[in-house]
Amino acid sequence: MARIHLMITFVLVMCGVAGGSCFGWLLGGRVLGVLAAVAAGLGAGVGSFLSRRHVAAFLRPDPVPADGPGSVSAPGGPGSGSVHAPGLGAVPESGGVVVGGYAEGVADAVLVCVATYQAAVFPLTVFGVSEEERVARRGVAYRVCAHEGLPQAVRVSAAAALEAVDEGVDAVRAHAAVRALSLAVYDLRAAR
Fold this sequence. Notes:
Elements: H1 2-28, H2 30-50, H3 52-59, E1 84-85, E2 89-90, H4 101-121, H5 131-145, H6 152-167, H7 171-190
Antiparallel strand pairs: 1-2
């Protein structure tokens, strides 16, 4: 988190310096440009330094109790298989993955990769996609779908979609499977 804040601070300071120098140069020439650049860069750096605590609190995940209220346990016993999501308690259908921004991003990537693979298998024109491109898109889709951070509900839908697209015979079935995958990704977002 500190590294992210440091990179953001660097970008803000550089933008302040560039903007201040351009604005100062336009208003009064070289000397005013240098003074405005220093003032804007210094202002951006001090502002970013003073707001670091707020930024760190925003980026830090919420603490979750081990087996507190809102926790749902799997049938195996207390605490086994339950997954805690910030602000949600446990999300048992996520398959051991905490539902959050990272998991949502991976799920979105899976949806995009499967949809592009579907478009390669069922192109709009007869010679729209070469065999090499189809194989490449298939490989990317399978690699992204095998990601560890993928929630179980999305993983199952992705497997069904890949199976339907791999057959390459029934475009309607493949479309329905990809639609089910998109609904699983949407449900993951809605659960937050």
